[in-house]
Amino acid sequence: MTGHTGFLGFPEKLPDGQKPRLVIFGAPYGTEYQGKDSSGYATAAAKIRAAVAEDAALIENWDFDLGGPLFNGQVPSCVDTGDLPTRVRNDEGNRELIAAKTREILSAGAVPIMIGGDDSTPIPFFAGFAESDPVWILQIDAHIDWREELHGGERFGYSSPMRRASEMAHVAGIVQVGMRGLGSARIQEVEDARRYGAKIVTAREIHAQGIDSAIRHIPQGARIVITLDCDGLDPSIMPGVVAPTPGGLSYTQVIELIEAAAARGRIAGFDLVEFHTPSDIANLTALTAARILVNAIGQILRQA
């Protein structure tokens, strides 16, 4: 995609000879939600970019979430390459586009940040790390996403990302944070996740015990891919989701999880998905998502 307005005004590429440390891209479609209209996710990246557009002139200002300006005195080294040309009912092609883009960014020595897109898009994003060193996945979500299949055989759709991740040899471990309520999983799926060794940390545990109840499960020095489903946060601050569930994480808890992950190991990738734009209220989800991405970028840039 050309001619788009990059997140925080980031360019599509840097001047010749300069290599980005971080590359953002959008992934509007993954694997089709059979019987459902996925078009509500397709404009998520554009809405998030628009929500933070006015801040593009302020990136040298003090950011109280980060304890200093976004780039922390460093040369700006972020690009936003726009949205991939994914399309409805091109499931396998969409997955390959996402995985290939992720591999391309990693091979250039940069950190990929993907803005989804529906809940199936993390599967090829994770797959794109296959040629790099092992990663741990830190999932922030209301649901554990361990379904084997949906709709009579679809294995790469929504509700299956963490099941598919568990089958990837380069995924060293999984920590799942924010689960709550009915509908998050069937009994067999919880048992399968635990048998694999996934650490499931409920939203109640985070509220009662703090973020260390999740971060402690990740080994020191690990390479970490953070995958954030918008319904992991409470719907009072992120209403733009299909399955709003009360009791979710707060904005502060999420940015503290991101900061703690950067301190625990190294954030190797980040995705934010499941922003259903027709369900948003007063642009609140777009704004909150944009601010979370700013925090993720700031923490990644502060990594040694």
UniProtKB/TrEMBL annotation:
<comment type="similarity">
    <text>Belongs to the arginase family.</text>
</comment>
<dbReference type="InterPro" id="IPR006035">
    <property type="entry name" value="Ureohydrolase"/>
</dbReference>
<dbReference type="GO" id="GO:0046872">
    <property type="term" value="F:metal ion binding"/>
</dbReference>
<keyword id="KW-0479">Metal-binding</keyword>
<keyword id="KW-0378">Hydrolase</keyword>
<protein>
    <submittedName>
        <fullName>Agmatinase</fullName>
    </submittedName>
</protein>
<dbReference type="GO" id="GO:0008783">
    <property type="term" value="F:agmatinase activity"/>
</dbReference>
<dbReference type="Pfam" id="PF00491">
    <property type="entry name" value="Arginase"/>
</dbReference>
<dbReference type="GO" id="GO:0033389">
    <property type="term" value="P:putrescine biosynthetic process from arginine, via agmatine"/>
</dbReference>
<dbReference type="InterPro" id="IPR023696">
    <property type="entry name" value="Ureohydrolase_dom_sf"/>
</dbReference>
